[in-house]
Automatic annotation (TrEMBL):
This is ROK family protein. InterPro entries: ATPase_NBD, ROK, ROK_cs. Pfam families: ROK. PROSITE patterns: ROK. It comes from the Bacteria. Belongs to the ROK (NagC/XylR) family.
Amino acid sequence: MHSDPVAALDIGGTKIAGALVDDRGRVLLRAQRPTRAREDGETVMGAVAEVLTELTRSPQWSDVRTLGIGSAGPVDAIRGSVSPVNVPGWRDFPLVDRVRDIVGGLTVELIGDGVAIAAAEHWQGAARGHDNALCMVVSTGVGGGLVLNGKLHPGPTGNSGHIGHISVDLDGDLCPCGGRGCVERIASGPNIARRALDSGWEPGADGDASAAGVAASARAGDPLALASFDRAARALAAGIAATATLVEVDIVVIGGGVAKSGEVLLDPLRRHLKEYATLSFVQDLTVAAAQMGTDAGLVGAAAAVFGSAVTKAPAGAA
């Protein structure tokens, strides 16, 4: 027997994606708009409304009873509000109420985007079969979510596992979140590119000055590009080791745009992790690439709605 599909929103600094997802994690329908994150909050909400309106026009919408939102954070699941660091126009923005205004009587649940990715990877991806996992996204920001004792652990407000804003450099740069030396301030894509450019790195013939361009140079052996990725990997390793020591996870799954650089990031990350994860109960920590791709946020928002019966699905379940 299969449940009705659920609606899902994945809200980030670059794009706002929506989907209808079934209880096997299959995306039945999708819609997407650019976030326009540098514009005012109502403009961003307009993009959300466009995505939802497109979904509601589907004949399958009549079967939808619940909607899950995975949003860049911090989020406040208790109040239904969001204050994404990378969306300045949204501060204490009443997202759940605004979404309810559009979708009527649906039940709406809000979690952080890192928590959504953890739900997806535990349900259908690289963390399947693991009872204790940290799942991360390394992209324009750095986020994460936790699975503990076989269950998704969003925390009271939906932000647990938000590793991007752990401080790993006490005297480091000021982060937009207000902290200093955060993992995100060092390891996110824009900051990898910024560090490389500041050190004198020059983009290749294609002019790509993003983290992807730095990664291409690193693969070719450019020492400045390699140094920028090494610094990012060290920050990630320090944050991961601190998290694993605190809550005893046995696998770390890393996804997101920067993670697509592959071994350029993962090789130094594994090497530095040996320097930071030194206690006996974290020495065997596994680092794996995410498997869910660009649908992770959508599938994870749906997984959180479907509940613990989904997030606890055993390895091999489909």
